[in-house]
Amino acid sequence: MSPRFKRAGLLLSLALQGCSLAPHYQVPEAKLPAHYGERVGAWQMVGTEQRLPAQWWKLFEDKRLNELQVQLEASNPDLAAAVAHYDAAAAYAQGLHGSLWPQASASVTPQRQRQSDRRPLRGNTQPSIYNSDTAGLSLNFDLDLWGKLRNQVAAGDAEAQASGDDLAAARLSLQKQLAVLYVRLRGLDVQHHLLGDALAHRTQLLTLIQDRYQGNIASELDLDRATARLSEANAQVDEAIAQRRLAEHAIAELVGKLPSEFSIADDQTPLEPPQVPHDLPSKLLQSRPDIAAAERRVYAANANIGVARAAWYPDFSLTGLVGGQTQGAGNLLASANRFWAVGPVLQLPIFDGGKREADEQKAVAEFDEAAAFYHGRVLHAVREVEDNLAQIGDLGQQARDVKTAADAATAAERIAMNSYKQGGVSLLDVLTAQLDALQTKQDLQRLQTKQVEACIGLMVALGGGWTQQPS
Fold this sequence. Notes:
alpha+beta, Outer membrane efflux proteins (OEP), palmitate, membrane, lipoprotein
């Protein structure tokens, strides 16, 4: 084999086996507890076969909620924007891969020229005006000996993966918003039902007092008190209706509908909090898209250090040019009209006023920033799980206590009403009993709604059934 081919083979081998100046990458170490501090009854550690389903909201077994989540996926504008952002990031990363291949381009230049009569070395036989046609093909191949291009590609791929994880996190956040709003709307339906019962009881009481007032048995004070309590109940009903309307409008926006085109039928059946299986804290690293996105950005920042370091070293590339040129009419492919050039190009940085050093310092600082953000996301994820586990336990105990109080208050209301009819207690006793019964029932409903919201928060904090894709 001739020395020239040996040298070419050596250059090609170096190009294919070029080194990388990026630091050796390791996933940042995250300090995680062996177990969560909050342990709640049936919410015990489970195996991977019991992980949350991807459509976690189906654990509530609510048909309307399932339909709304499908509409959100299809029509939410924020989600559509997140999808477009991911598509752009993926396309940009794909474009970076092209830099690893030889770059070829063609050019055709038909010209009509006039030479200056005073041009140096101009021959006497050359025409002043003539046609010049040139066509050529150029080729450039950066050997990437120091891994600059490959690290740029690696960083671009990691950023695209992070953008995909951002999309999953955005989708999960919107799903949570929709589920929470729907739970609150259902809670308002129950509140409306409770207020409707209270309104009926107070209307019945006012009718009784009006009859007694006309018979000079009840006083005008009793009549005014009963009338005031009835008006108060009407105002509470109006407030519940207004709050429900706002919740319905917010849901309409999430599913991409105008409020005037959207409605949800009243349903007084409260949603029950499902049992939410959760795994060891270490599983959070594979189950939360925001953590995965943060880790990919650490990887991208690490690769960018290699890009910055490569700027200190000479850049080697192979170039080639082939084509034809004629003056006037002629065959560009004729052997006499052909030209070509081939050879290596070496670009060696000498002085840039400190730019390369600053670029490397910037890349290192961005890596430190990305690593710190990753650790922050891990801590935040663990805290979110612990918070929701604590809420589920605390709210469960509160709900049991308030349920006992509500049952007692309801019984007291019934006893007070019967005693009032027999003249055993005053109207004030009846009104107080009614108010206590309504208040405890409303408190119980609010606690039950918060319990369901805490379950939603726990499912989302655990990643909502999301599964990390291979890097």
